[in-house]
Amino acid sequence: MEFAIKFDFKASNNKAEYEALALGMKMAQDAGASHLTAYFDSQLIVKQVTGEYEAKDKSMVIGLDDNDWRAPLLRWLEEGHLLKKRWEATKIKTRATRFLIQGDMLYKKSFTHPLLCCLSEREGVHVLGEIYSGCCGSHIGTWALANKALRVGYFWPTMKQDARELVSKCERC
């Protein structure tokens, strides 16, 4: 599988290679791959991924971090672990009834849509960017942009907020 990526942020060579790895792993997983071989120039990235080195930069840790909105839901649905604060635990238990795990992906149940694939906020912003100004982008309004992402089958809690920020920053509009 070959693909090209354009980053909308400044990144070191290691960060760019790491981001390419993370995105490639996600794409391979979405395509149903059960085995993946990756080749790298950077021993730093290889040793970080194999666990020999620990990443100093929090943004270079593969997998869900605790700041990801999906982490508490996944911990509860997969392992039955809840947060120590009682009100937060109750909130997660209640909220978790609207989600399910298939494979290793979290999905949100919906009455009006099929299962919605739950994305991190960073992944969601990327999806919005593609819908808004990608090769078939239409520079639509905030409400239409968020709803188009929903109709395509994605969900994250800040999608409307993220759409509003993206649309407001567009110089062409």
Automatic annotation (TrEMBL):
Residues 4-56 form the RNase H type-1 domain. Signal peptide: none annotated. InterPro entries: RNaseH-like_sf, RNaseH_domain, RNaseH_sf. GO terms for molecular function: nucleic acid binding; RNA-DNA hybrid ribonuclease activity. It holds the Pfam family RVT_3. PANTHER family: RIBONUCLEASE H (PTHR48475). This is RNase H type-1 domain-containing protein. It comes from Sesamum angolense.
